[in-house]
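Dear H.,

Thanks for agreeing to be a second pair of eyes. The structure we're designing against is below in token form, covering all 450 positions.
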């Protein structure tokens, strides 16, 4: 155990990661040594920022805490603090079942953590991150909570109603991150398209994106977690005219059968969804749409599933993930529906849908072969530099692999006449030509630097 060191472990989504980074900025300011997601926790305090979205995420959070209790008994770590979505919903149950937890906090009780450590929350640091991502990209959360109340989703029960961050505060945060060397920004929220209404009386995502795109040094701006119902179409011309706004939109659709969409309380039909997708692609040519689908929702029939597959075939999403329905306590679905699709049927449908999407992904990837794209270099990994196009968000989308031995050479710097491949610096942009494709990777060769 190392005194005055805090290890912080983040589980779940990128929104949780932002919460961890903001808390770590406060802890760093009062002098703590910080380690994020350490392989070998040794802190006098370990904080676990939990996820409680679906069953698997809850299980991961609980197993992580139980693993830390073993380290605590061996005196390898000190106290265990638990925060986040799981503790927001199940505070009493966690304390009863895992008494080794020293402190437990809700999702937003960051000030309580500082107070228990003998410090005060510094509001002057509200726009600061302790950056845990590679230095060239960052996640920026523009709002918290959700007003949609879809039948399957526990997020509104955990986070409450939608609360937008003031626009000026977000702008200040992005400027501060640009000053730290960040070039690429992922805008995130439970519902990106709901931004602004609670503060300004109207949906303001288009104005926010334009203001951020105008900041010098913002090279890429990518949009995550939009909602299709009442989609703010004034966002589309902003995306089309600003070259630094990635032609990428994460639009979670969940299903395409009107029967299932109605039971999900999605408040949009398949026909309206297809009209929206057509309008997005018309106004923003070349856009890549990422979406998420759910199989096995209560009452989903074989016919409903066939309609979903046909929809996916028609739309040919460049990026698509899927998951099986998991009943969440307290949701509309848990109160009103029977979870009547057998687990083996859910898995079969999930496998079938993702097999279909793999074929579509390969076709979309193969269309890039021979074309030149601007990419950002993420890292050197063995014999390859790993990069991404504007159509690829970190960790969830395909990567571009540039073989080191394909790069131009330069002198080794020693007086030996040896030539070595040039080095590509993470965070820089390069022009590459795609040479081959697989469903989730592209191979490329360097064209020139830019």
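And this is the sequence the design step returned. I haven't edited it by hand at all.
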């Amino acid at each position: 155990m190392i005194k005055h060191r805090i290890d912080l472990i983040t589980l779940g989504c990128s929104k949780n990661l932002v919460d961890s980074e903001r808390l770590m900025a406060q802890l760093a300011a009062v002098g703590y040594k910080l380690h994020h997601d350490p392989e070998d926790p040794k802190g006098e305090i370990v904080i676990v920022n939990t996820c409680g979205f679906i069953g698997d995420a809850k299980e991961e959070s609980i197993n992580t805490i139980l693993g830390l209790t073993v380290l605590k008994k061996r005196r390898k770590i000190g106290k265990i603090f638990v925060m986040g979505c799981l503790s927001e919903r199940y505070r009493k149950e966690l304390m009863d079942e895992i008494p080794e937890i020293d402190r437990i906090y809700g999702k937003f009780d960051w000030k309580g953590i500082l107070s228990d450590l003998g410090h005060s929350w510094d509001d002057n640091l509200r726009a600061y991150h302790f950056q845990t991502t590679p230095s060239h990209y960052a996640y920026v959360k523009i709002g918290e909570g959700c007003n949609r109340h879809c039948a399957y989703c526990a997020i509104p029960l955990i986070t409450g109603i939608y609360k937008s961050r003031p626009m000026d505060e977000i702008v200040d945060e992005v400027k501060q991150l640009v000053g730290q060397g960040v070039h690429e920004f992922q805008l995130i929220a439970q519902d990106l398209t709901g931004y602004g209404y609670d503060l300004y009386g109207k949906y303001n995502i288009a104005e926010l994106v334009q203001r951020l795109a105008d900041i010098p040094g913002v090279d890429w701006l990518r949009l995550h977690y939009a909602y299709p119902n009442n989609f703010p179409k004034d966002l589309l011309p902003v995306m089309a005219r600003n070259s630094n706004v990635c032609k990428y939109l994460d639009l979670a659709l969940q299903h395409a059968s009107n029967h299932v969409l109605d039971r999900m309380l999605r408040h949009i039909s398949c026909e309206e969804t297809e009209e929206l997708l057509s309008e997005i692609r018309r106004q923003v040519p070349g856009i890549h749409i990422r979406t998420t689908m759910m199989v096995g929702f209560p009452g989903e029939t074989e016919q409903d599933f066939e309609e979903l597959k046909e929809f996916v075939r028609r739309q040919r999403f460049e990026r698509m993930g899927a998951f099986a329905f998991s009943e969440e306590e307290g949701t509309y679905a848990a109160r009103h529906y029977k979870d009547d699709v057998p687990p083996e049927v859910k898995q079969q449908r999930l496998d079938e849908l993702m097999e279909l999407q793999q074929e579509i992904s390969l076709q979309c990837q193969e269309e890039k072969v021979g074309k030149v794209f601007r990419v950002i270099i993420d890292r050197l990994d063995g014999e390859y530099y790993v990069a991404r196009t504007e159509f690829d968000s970190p960790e969830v989308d395909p990567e571009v692999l540039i073989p080191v031995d394909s790069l131009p050479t330069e002198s080794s710097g020693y007086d030996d006449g040896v030539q070595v491949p040039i080095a590509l610096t993470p965070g820089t942009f390069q022009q590459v030509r795609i040479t081959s494709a697989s469903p989730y990777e592209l191979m490329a060769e360097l064209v020139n630097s830019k």
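Two observations from my side: The chain has three domains: 2-124, 130-366, 372-449. The mean pLDDT is 91.

Warmly,
E.
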